[in-house]
From TrEMBL:
Residues 142-351 form the Exocyst component Exo84 C-terminal domain. It comes from Cardamine amara subsp. amara. This is Exocyst complex component EXO84B. InterPro entries: Cullin_repeat-like_dom_sf (IPR016159), Exo84 (IPR033961), Exo84_C (IPR032403), Exo84_C_1 (IPR042561), Exo84_C_2 (IPR042560). It comes from the Eukaryota. Residues 511-531, 722-750 are annotated as: Disordered. GO terms for biological process: exocytosis; protein transport.
Amino acid sequence: MATKAARSKATPTKESGVRVEEGLSLFKSDKFDADAYVQSKCSINEKDIKQLCSYLLDLKRASAEEMRRSVYANYPAFIRTSKEISDLEGELSSIRNLLSTQATLIHGLANGVNIDDEKVSDESLANGVLNFEDNVLSDLEKWAAEFPDQLDALLAERRVDEALAAFDEGEILISQANEKHTLSSSVLSSLQFAIAERKQKLADQLAKAACQPSTRGGELRSGIVALKRLGDGPRAHTVLLDAHFQRYQYNMQSLRPSSTSYGGAYTAALSQLVFSAISQASSDSLGIFGKEPAYSSELVTWATKQTEAFSLLVKRHALASSAAAGGLRAAAECAQIALGHCSLLEARGLSLCPVLLKHFKPIVEQALEANLKRIEENTAAMAAADDWVLTYPPAGSRHASTAFQNKLTSSAHRFNLMVQDFFEDVGPLLSMQLGSKALEGLFRVFNSYVDVLIRALPGSIEEEEANFEGSSNKIVQMAETEAHQLALLANASLLADELLPRAAMKLSLDQTRTDDIRRPSDRQNRNPEQREWKRRLLSTVDKLKDAFCRQHALELIFTEDGDSHLSADMYINMDGNGEDVDSFPSLIFQELYCKLNRMASLAADMFVGRERFATSLLMRLTETVILWLSGDQSFWDDIEEGPRPLGPLGLRQLYLDMKFVIGFASQGRYLSRNLHRGTNEIITKALAAFTATGMDPYSELPEDDWFNDICVDAMERLSGKAKGNNGEVHSPTASVSAQSVSSVRSHGSY
């Protein structure tokens, strides 16, 4: 079997053969430089070496699993064939013995040996006993006449060892008599028949005694050894296995599972019985029959059958009820107990865990899915009544002491608590290769929770009504204020960036004591699969961030009636009023600046230790407004092709607005490349539209310092800060801003 499995494993597929051929093409080249090749491979750094080692370990595990599946896929057919061959060998041996006996009889008849009817009665021949009426009998003939009676006495008194010795003695004397012709062939045939008949009788006695539950281990092994000495090894091995089966079946009668009993206790007791019986049967088989393939194959087939029966019992009485109720911990514990007992047999060469996994894995997966569904439903129910106020964990929570720095809303606290419990439940299931499935399932649940948070944004109501048919229509408490809406982001970002990856560390297969002294971030980044999982969690948070920014951008740009606060008319009409216009940023950008300031103040308290996330949020919101203006085709159609051209005052105001955006973004440290690119495009389009009127835009724009002073003054006035003496404005960003404007004025873009 091992040879066949190894051959099937070693046989490459066509695709792998092509890959190997491509990999070897480098070595077939005439220009191949061995030293250069080795040097290139040895120049990898420590990180690459670790990645290569991780890849090779994954490949090794995958190869071992593939080999195991291949072996078990073909093993039943191999065992069945081996059993049939063994049976055929036994039948051929019986036929050979019969032919030998008949050949002896025919040979005697051919030599003219005649049986005297007066010396041998019909009755004595039928009883297998020879009675000689002739007074002149040899000692051997007397022994032949008395030997069957001696055997009957030994069998009646169950003196097995003496009976076996007598059988051996009788066969030796028969062999000698046959060679020396000291007994007639009829006497030899009758004696052989008598011995064979009593051997069969003794074999039946031994087999019956072996299968009695009261037979002890030593008696069983002695009986099987005696049965083997009788010359029927296959039957002896079958009786040995059946005896162990009958014994543990008898002991199982005391195990009566009930609806109130603990499934783990029942599983532990039952697995102890079954796998102890398999272990003892394996030990007895090896001790009595050695490693002969036919017997080893029968042992594996028998052990597999018993494991299948055990799996069905545990599934029916312990796992099914736990899985149906979503009791992942109970189901996991039952499976782990059974797998633990079963794995002990691997030292004896019996790898039966795949048999258990075939039955246990689907039902434990059912419990896993039910548990995940419960987390999703409970969290959604909590979100329906969540006030979206950040608080520390409840004092009675067992996670309060370990998560004292984490402020979440009530639904997020509930979600985190259930996730922590979830990972404690699935930790033992790594042996069932459910780690990846657990991570994938939890990702789906977190994605569902993020969808709930998105629906809590006021702007999502209209979208749900527009797509009512595809909406899950779950009730959720609205986050009305900016503080409440930022709390939604605080929930999602803290869960995705810290709490969930930290909980998922319980799934790591390579945890050692050194993990306790590492920083959490180091441990989280150690597993490539978990790093990818964390990346997916953070990408889900981006959905919420985009929805948040889109909602606030639309609130700034549009009125409740659908009119726009950011239209081309606000710039075009400035040159037609004939009135002096105060140089100050447009109202919409003043509101944007104030909104960003408010959010920055709130985020400073909500995102402690995660200031980077708060900065990226403000950056995304500013980008959303500017990119919308840059891509609003109706706005630019009015600017470039409208009935009234863009005048000097309108150009100056648009330039000032973009300068103002760059100024406060730079001051708040959320000036991004996308924002810089967006303002560049807006200014470039405005300059091009103004140039199309035949005027020089740079002759109409004031000096750079003029824009800088107005922007700094506007930021201070809007933020409530006082000016310096004599009305002069002092800003640390003025020099940076002046350089930016100078660059735009020099190159015609920003």
